[in-house]
Design a protein that fits this description.
It comes from Demequina mangrovi. With about 300 residues, the chain is an alpha/beta fold. It has ten helices and 13 strands. The strands form three sheets. It has a five-stranded mixed β-sheet with strand order 3-2-1-4-8. Strands 11-10-9-12-13 form a five-stranded mixed β-sheet, with helices on both faces. The chain has a three-stranded antiparallel β-sheet with strand order 5-6-7. The two termini are about 15 Å apart.
Length: about 300
Amino acid sequence: MHLGIDIGGTKTDAVVVDTTGRIRARHRRPSGRGGDAVVGAALESARTACADAGVRPDEVTVGIGTPGAVVDGIVTHAVNLGVDSLDLASEFGAGWGGRPLVDNDVNVAALGAWTLTGGPGRSMAYLNLGTGLAAGLVLDGKVWRGARGAAGEIGHISVDPAGPVGSDGLPGGLETYASGSGLALQWGVDGATAADVVEAAAAGDARAREICGRAYYGLASCVRVLVLTLDVDEVVVGGGMTAWGEDLIHGATSILDAWAGASPFLASLQLAERMRPLGLDLPVAAVGAAMLGGGRG
């Protein structure tokens, strides 16, 4: 059996799964803020999930997904957890009795999405549209991290040098176009969220509709970039922005279809058909963390 823990900015989600990724138990609780609280919440969620599954801690492998940069189990720059640097593998291991494998949350979500959505022979990009924007890549059944761990950081690709400037100081970045923080940044209203922009667009606000149009273009561009660079079988779209619903997918599909109509080569790639939305209720990051701990990825 495998235990997976997804540490998020607001909640910590722990699951116990079998070797196929089938969930046997799940427990969620608020995440802590600061190193000690983060580790404490992860340990409590893990213990409860194991108890609910009827397994002892020494009967499961352990994997953890977390925001921030991860090298050798050490997490840095996890701003939404209040963590500058935390040796998560060692600190959790001390309380658990065994050292877990730890990776970035988008990478483990990619592994979880790959596990839950079908055939083992597929290559896949998991495109996470949340507060930020990045992709996790699964090639030949393994997460591809790149030479310096930056594979999939496509949010920093600029698609319009005259576009709105993002938080990274670059104009027209994909993260600015199609992430929750990017929509809120473009809207420019203190305390506003991406949902406020979508609501204003639905009510007919011209500027909000323009921002939403950029989001459709941004999602379509992400799919195009991922397929053209890696030729993955499919791009699975997940993250909080998918709560927007069918309008987001339909808007991006219309742009992909227009590109296909203009380019026989792009038409041959069937970009729209290779984009697949993922249900919000699937705990892909926790399942992926469990698979990581079990030797996948």
